[in-house]
Design a protein that fits this description.
By secondary structure, this protein is an alpha/beta fold. It contains eleven helices and eight strands. The protein is globular, with a radius of gyration of 17 Å. The protein binds BIS(adenosine)-5'-pentaphosphate (AP5).
Length: 225
């Protein structure tokens, strides 16, 4: 499995990538986790990128590409969560994969409307002990996870709005980018229950008979705006 999970902040990329990784053994490569880990460790890179993360801006492309490339080289099967986020990053990914002689198999787009995403991100908590992602109301932490359960600094209403605007402006165009390359894509309804979303993604990865961009890619996105 070598797939990219695309979708706005709060659509469930991290949640689904964790579940898919457990089910398939593919490595979950989450650039947001890499960014937070550098910040937490107070490395020189972490200090350089903290401001971008905290205000909901993108870390510069060249830094992100430099962080992801070595991880890609050591993983055989992977689920990319949060990368690429710009056309520059998508081109860098293409080049890196070409040099490694491997192909990107699928792009799966998780779709949910912005008002749902605002609610999800406001209630999101992540376990410091296990890294698992929860929601206070819809997916509360189980008793066996010791926590503590942390609210991210970028999950404030103003920052969430900024991140979503950035997604629509800079990341959504990737759908056109991948469509133009004839890459197999599938839009998945991210408002369905967690297990249903996981099943749908697995089916999309397995079946190979994905809908054409004109019918499946744009219509649900436009209708839900
Ligand atoms: P990152 O950590 O990737 O944040 P994000 O893109 O804002 O995405 P989120 O983690 O907010 O959303 P998600 O889709 O993973 O949702 P989740 O599964 O948690 O990046 C953080 C920062 O790092 C960026 O802002 C940027 O500064 C930097 N960065 C990272 N990558 C970069 C790149 N490539 N280029 C430049 N900068 C980069 O779910 C959200 C909530 O919804 C949870 O509470 C969950 O329980 C709930 N939920 C999920 N699915 C469902 C469902 N089906 N039903 C009900 N609730 C659900």
């Amino acid at each position: 499995m070598r797939i990219v999970l695309l979708g706005p902040q709060g659509a469930g990329k991290g949640t689904q990538a964790q579940r898919l990784s457990t089910l398939t053994g593919a490595q979950h490569i989450a650039t947001g986790d890499m960014v937070r880990s550098e910040i937490q460790a107070n490395t020189a890179l972490g200090r350089a990128i903290k401001g971008y993360n905290d205000r909901g801006a993108f870390v510069p492309d060249e830094l992100m590409v430099a962080m992801v490339q070595p991880v890609l080289q050591t993983a055989r099967n992977w689920i990319l969560d949060g990368f690429p986020r710009t056309v520059v990053q998508a081109r860098a990914l293409d080049t890196a994969l070409h040099e490694m002689g491997v192909t990107l198999e699928r792009v799966v787009i998780l779709h949910a409307p912005d008002d749902e995403l605002m609610v999800r991100l406001a209630g999101r908590r992540q376990s410091q002990a296990t890294g698992r992602i929860y929601h206070l109301l819809t997916n509360p932490p189980p008793k066996h996870d010791p926590g503590p359960f942390i609210q991210r600094v970028d999950d404030t209403p103003a920052t969430i709005r900024r991140r979503l605007a950035l997604y629509h402006a800079a990341t959504e165009p990737l759908q056109e980018y991948y469509a133009a390359r004839g890459l197999l894509m599938r839009v998945v309804d991210a408002c369905a229950p967690l297990a249903t979303v996981t099943e749908t993604i697995l089916h999309a990865v397995d079946d190979g008979c994905l809908s054409s961009p004109s019918t499946s890619l744009h219509a649900p996105l436009d209708a839900a705006r």
